[in-house]
Write a structure and sequence with these properties.
By secondary structure, the protein is an alpha+beta fold. It has helices at residues 8-25, 29-35, 40-48, 68-81, 88-102, 105-117, 232-268, 280-308, 314-338, 349-357, 367-379, and strands at residues 122-125, 141-144, 148-159, 166-172, 182-188, 194-199, 210-221, 225-226, 270-271, 274-275. The strands form three sheets. Strands 1-4-5-8 form a four-stranded mixed β-sheet, covered by helices on one side. It starts with 7 loop residues before the first helix and ends with a helix.
């Protein structure tokens, strides 16, 4: 079915993204996988190509558009390319809204030009060793010391954790913390007491640096408070819908791509003297997956269109996230099975897709949390 979500300007942007991937990312991705981190220069190249700060005002070097469809194009193309190392969507769509919506004029001048050029790489630090999806369980503390906060705690599973120059940290600014006692503090590279642990050894997304962060008596100036004190939980709830939609968009595109690869494979691979595609079971498998992917695509395109009009609510974003990521997991697993023994070999794209995609149902809020959000909205 013809998609009517995108206009000519979005398709032109898609070509820019594809060219960038072909020239700046894919030739280096295997090396980045071995090294566990991408080159900093590729971030600056992304900035020069206009792939960073899409929603940042033009006066700060950004794209000046609040149209999420440009972000969706970028996410789709990275997912289809299997380029999991360069976390542009984390930078643009997850960290970006906190800076564009909450930063004051001085903070915008200080951070947004570098954010848009790729000179400043960002991360957000919510997850802790004892607090994952339960954001009210955060234990990192920030104690008011007059002109600064004294920040103490530990964060883990922080994407961009090794490269990040600017980290938005969620911390308790009241003893009880919880929904009414957390704040967002911006920690910058070089602050005394801010240390990075090891680059975590994951089963997939090897090129994407993911680290532990340690905060020991870090003096964070009051000028680095983002938004109002004790309002972090409300800010997080407002911005998580976009994060979850972004993950869903990538999941659907990844599922479609691996299905296309597998469809071609079963046409070429022979068993019992004929192509696999001639076997009824194989045809039924492909038919089922193609139908599931098409139905998911229709719902997600509607969600993206609504979000671009600022009309998408948290419940439908949660529906999109859990459904699309579980679909990706299911389709990738079935496609690996159809590849037989070759699917278990890392040289085949389906093997990488299998390990890279497994995290999708976990980060950004687990499937179980998504269902809880939806269930509460329906049943109280």
């Amino acid at each position: 079915m013809r998609r009517d979500l995108y206009g000519p300007e979005h398709e032109a942007f898609r070509e820019t993204v594809r060219t960038f991937l072909a020239k700046e990312v894919l030739p280096h991705h295997e090396r980045w996988e071995r090294e566990g981190v991408v080159d900093r220069e590729v971030w600056r190249s992304a900035g020069r190509q206009g792939l960073l700060g899409l929603a940042v005002d033009e006066e700060y070097g950004g794209g000046g558009t609040a149209d999420f469809r440009h972000s969706a194009v970028l996410i789709e193309e990275f997912a289809r390319a299997g380029a999991s190392g360069l976390a542009l969507s984390l930078h643009n769509d997850i960290v970006g809204p906190y800076l564009t919506r909450l930063a004051n004029d001085e903070q915008r001048r200080r951070w947004l030009p570098g954010f848009s050029s790729g000179e400043i790489i960002t991360a957000i630090a919510m997850t802790e060793p004892g607090a994952g999806s339960d954001l009210q369980g955060i234990r990192t503390t920030a104690v008011d010391r007059g002109d600064h906060y004294l920040l103490n705690g530990a964060k883990t599973f922080i994407s961009n954790g090794v490269l990040a120059d600017l980290v938005v940290v969620v911390a308790r600014t009241t003893p009880e913390g919880g929904s009414g006692g957390q704040s967002l503090l911006v920690v910058e590279r070089g602050m005394a007491g801010f240390e990075r642990g090891r680059n975590l050894d994951k089963i997939g997304q090897k090129a994407q640096d993911t680290a532990e962060l340690f905060l020991h008596d870090v003096r964070v100036p009051k000028a680095n408070l983002l938004g109002e004190e004790n309002q972090a939980f409300a800010y997080l709830m407002a911005n998580l819908a976009q994060e979850r939609l972004a993950i869903a968009v990538g999941a659907a595109a990844a599922a479609e791509e691996i299905l296309d690869i597998t469809t071609r494979y079963v046409k070429e691979r022979e068993a019992f003297g004929r192509p696999l595609a001639r076997l009824q079971h194989i045809r039924f498998e492909i038919a089922e997956m193609a139908t599931e992917a098409a139905v998911t695509r229709a719902f997600l395109d509607r969600c993206v269109a609504e979000h671009s009009r600022a009309e998408l609510d948290a419940v439908h974003a949660s529906m999109a996230k859990w459904w699309a990521t579980e679909l990706q997991k299911r389709i990738t697993d079935r496609c690996l099975q159809l590849h037989g023994g070759y699917g278990y070999m890392t040289e085949y794209r389906v093997a990488k897709a299998f390990v890279d995609g497994r995290i999708q149902t976990i980060y950004g809020g687990t499937t179980e949390i998504m269902k809880e959000i939806i269930g509460r909205s329906l049943l109280g």
